[in-house]
Amino acid sequence: MTNNQTDHDLLIELKTVQQVMLRQVTELKEDISMRVTQLERNKLDITDSYMANYKESVEKTLRYYENRIRCNEKNIIRIMAYGTAALVIIGIIQGILSLYFR
Asked: What is the pTM of this model?
């Protein structure tokens, strides 16, 4: 085989590889273009966003639960205060009765 024949074969191979790569790049470009179009078509509008649809109801629900928690805390503190007072009174009564029935 001559040197010219080898060079010619190599050029044909390179040309084939170049065509394959060019086809792949073109396919990638078309695919990316199609995906961008799809994403733009399916993007959210401001009317679909959290702020427009859900924020008010979520904040209302959170305020409701915060108020319930505050109310429950007040009730627990009140019950603990009454319970402590009752125990002190029972202790005083027990002390008086133990002195009286000695």
From this structure: 0.45
